[in-house]
C-alpha cells in the first residue's frame, strides 16, 4: 500500500559507529581497497585523539535528522517522514532509500547536510540516491544547495560575532585579527568543469562576514585528500603561517563548509590548526558548529517544503 507521506532522505558523509569500525569505514572510502597498516594507524590515532575510544560522533547526525523531523512536523504535521542515508557508513544511502520503499513511500526529497554543491560531493550523493530510487519506483526530488538561505546566514553570523568577541578578549584589545573561512578541499580539476562549489563558498563567506561586520577575512581550504593530483589550496595550516608573518595576533576559524562536529573540525581545526597557531604565537578561536541550531533545522525544513511544493503539490 502506498504511503501518502513524503519521504525525506537526509544524507551525510558518515562516520564509524565505534573504533572497531574504522577499518571497514576507511575501506569503503577507498572504494573497497583496504588501507595500509600505516594509514589505518594514522586514522585510528586521529579518532582516538578526538573521541578517546568512545564514539559520540554518529549521534550528531542522528540528532540533526531528528531535529529536521521535528521542524517538518511543526510546519506540516504528518506530511513528511525522515530517513537517513550515509555515504560511507551504515545505513548507506541505498539503505535509506530501501527503508522508504519498504514503508510504501512513493515520493521523496533528497537533501545533504552540506550547504554547498559540488558534482564531486553533493552530486555524488544524489546520483546514488536517484539510482536506488529509480530501481525501487520512488520519485526523488533533489535539494542541490542552500548556501545563501537567509536563516543559514543568520545562524552563521551569530556564531562569527560570538567567536570574534571571544577572540578579541583572548588576543587583547586593539590587536590585528583575521577571520579565516574554510571548507573541505576538493581536487583542483573541479575548476576546469565550472563546478559551483568554490563560488558558493565565497558567496556564503562574504554574506556572513558582511552580516557580522568583519572586514578583514579571507577564504582558505582544509582536510585535502592525500592523492597524487593537486587539490584546492592554500591549506589552512599554510594560511596560518602567512597570517602570522603578516603580523596578525588572532585568527577566527569559521569552517562554514561543515555543519557538525566531526574529525575535520575536532581534529583538523581544534588539534592540528590549533597546535600550529600556538607555535606561531597567535590565538585561534573556532566558531560553534551549526548542529541542531533551530535556524539550521528551519533552513533544511524550508528547502524540503519548497522542493515538495515545486514537484508534488
TrEMBL record:
User: What highest taxon heads this organism's lineage?
Assistant: Bacteria
Record bears the keyword Cytoplasm: yes
Could you list this entry's UniProt keywords, alphabetically sorted: Cytoplasm, Heme biosynthesis, Iron, Lyase, Metal-binding, Porphyrin biosynthesis
What subcellular locations does the record give? Answer: Cytoplasm
Reaction it catalyzes: Fe-coproporphyrin III + 2 H(+) = coproporphyrin III + Fe(2+)
Write down the CDD domains for this protein, in alphabetical order. Ferrochelatase_C, Ferrochelatase_N
The residues the record assigns to binding Fe(2+) are 184, 264
Q: Where does Fe-coproporphyrin III bind?
A: 13, 30, 46-47, 125
Q: What's the main place this protein lives?
A: cytoplasm
* Pathway assignment: Porphyrin-containing compound metabolism; protoheme biosynthesis
Root EC class: lyase
Q: What is its EC number?
A: 4.99.1.9
| Family annotation (InterPro entries) | Ferrochelatase, Ferrochelatase_C, Ferrochelatase_N
Which molecular function term from Gene Ontology is one that the record holds? ferrochelatase activity
A single GO BP term for this record reads: heme biosynthetic process
- Which terms in the GO cellular component ontology are assigned? cytoplasm
Q: So what does this one do?
A: Involved in coproporphyrin-dependent heme b biosynthesis. Catalyzes the insertion of ferrous iron into coproporphyrin III to form Fe-coproporphyrin III.
Q: Which family does it belong to?
A: Belongs to the ferrochelatase family.
How is this protein named in the record? Coproporphyrin III ferrochelatase
Organism of derivation: Paenibacillus lycopersici
